[in-house]
Amino acid sequence: MDRFLYKKSAGITALSASMTEFKYKKHAHKEYAIGVTLRGIQHYHIDGSLQLSHQNGVMLFNPEQVHDGMAHDKSGLDYVMLYFDPELLLEVMGKKEIVRFSTPIVYDHRLGQRVVSLSRAILSEKDEALCSELFLSLTDCLVQSNLTLDDKKDSAIIRKAKDMIHANLEQVLKLDELCTELDLSKFQFIRLFKAHTGISPYQYFLNCRVERAKQLIEQNRDIYLAVAACGFFDLTHLNKHFKSVYGTTALEYISHIH
């Protein structure tokens, strides 16, 4: 049976997941994500290549890095994952510019143990002070392992397109207006955007809506406000897209977090 449990503390969201049949659709997060495969094999595509994270594999995802995900075989998969904003990592690392993980999977016992320790502390609702200390220990391990490098910034066109999409999440995506502003034909833009990000503009738009809905749910504890503010038809519509990204419905998510 597929199971997804989320908890949040010290600005970090922890996920404990067990899955057999469920498959994540292509999506990306604005946050960093670091996880450990506890049982089975995590099967996913990232940056156009297939990755297989076996037991004890530490998975490293950069912000807005498109990926999918599933269990590799019928024996299923157990894993934990941590999600945190870029600003939090930069604060702890003492850096000003976004950094990126240089490799998608590593087998580093010390790093894996720190991910598991922090995730267990958050999921078992330990004190926030302890979770912050464990996050600092995890970050120090990342730096010592030399797993980060300077960020490659988006092209000006892609960055402007993303900003315009984020500014109008409550409305229907108006591709013609966006392309007029960018001085590109509709098909030029779709091709360029997909080549740069790995997903189409519409997929990115839906993903941003879901991300924004999650933020509003966490901030306001009002799921219906998130439905209205992010342009979903109703709660069923939000739940459908939310589950494709997080493995659980928005209604289930809010019950976990709060």
Question: What does the model show?
Answer:
By secondary structure, this protein is α+β, with helices and mostly antiparallel strands. Helix content is 46%, strand content 25%. The chain has ten helices and twelve strands. Helix 7 crosses helix 9. The longest helix has 20 residues, at 201-220.
Helix vs. strand class? alpha+beta
Major pleated sheet: 6 strands, antiparallel
How large, in whole angstroms, is the Cα Rg?
A: 18 Å
User: Which bin fits the share of residues in helices?
Assistant: 40-55%
Shape: globular
Across the major sheet, the strand order is 1-2-9-4-7-11
Spans where pLDDT lies below 50 across 5 or more residues: none
- SSE sequence, one letter per element: EEEEEEEEEHEEHHEHHHHHHH
The CA-CA distance between the termini, in Å, is 24 Å
Determine the strand fraction and express it as a percent band: 15-25%
**Topology, number of strands:** 12
Q: Please, how many helices?
A: 10
Mean pLDDT: 92
